[in-house]
């Protein structure tokens, strides 16, 4: 039996990864013989180390075996989705309360929580405010990104003036 070389595969879902390989066996009398393995090519292997055992039996009942190892890993960080940079109008002297959506998904862990330096709904001060966010998947892979919240004051003040006044002149100059 000629087994495949040991493999390291990246998980593509919570189920693990699809293993693809070919293995051959040749017998002096029977020629090419069918190989049967404990994990068939095209099957899904879960995260972790797996020893795949392969066997071939010729027409006379002689059996040969060989093994190879498959290591399924999750080394891909989550996909982090943050808002584009935001510009918001100040609602008071302290700035503005800003709500935003921050999401993360991972091929293996699925939807995961996002932690940001300034949480959604917080009051952001006037000017540029950088928000750093990260998401950590179950395998310890981390994704990080930033966006900026610019709080501006573009509304002019409201003037409150008294109505027209009638005033008695106190001299020739007024």
Could you explain how this protein is built, in words?
With 174 residues, the chain is mainly beta. It contains no helices and 17 strands. The strands form six sheets. The protein has a four-stranded mixed β-sheet, with no helix packed on it. A four-stranded mixed β-sheet has the order 10-17-16-14, with no helix packed on it. A hairpin with a 3-residue loop joins strand 12 (103-106) and strand 13 (110-112). The mean pLDDT is 95.
Salient structural properties:
174 residues; mainly beta; four-stranded mixed β-sheet; 17 strands; 0% helix; rod-shaped
Q: Please tell me what the overall shape is.
A: rod-shaped
- Straight-line distance between termini: 117 Å
Mean pLDDT comes to 95
Structural class, please?
mainly beta
Overall helicity: under 10%
**H/E topology pattern:** EEEEEEEEEEEEEEEEE
Beta-strand content bin = over 45%
Q: How many strands in all? A: 17
Instruction: Provide the gyration radius in Å.
Output: 34 Å
Put the structure in a nutshell.
The chain is mainly beta. Strands 1-8-7-5 form a 4-stranded mixed beta sheet, with no helix packed on it. It has a 4-stranded mixed beta sheet with strand order 10-17-16-14, with no helix packed on it. The protein is rod-shaped.
Topology:
Elements: E1 7-10, E2 17-18, E3 25-27, E4 31-33, E5 35-37, E6 44-45, E7 48-57, E8 63-73, E9 79-81, E10 86-89, E11 96-97, E12 103-106, E13 110-112, E14 115-116, E15 123-124, E16 127-136, E17 142-152
Parallel strand pairs: 1-8, 10-17
Antiparallel strand pairs: 2-6, 3-4, 5-7, 7-8, 9-12, 11-15, 12-13, 14-16, 16-17
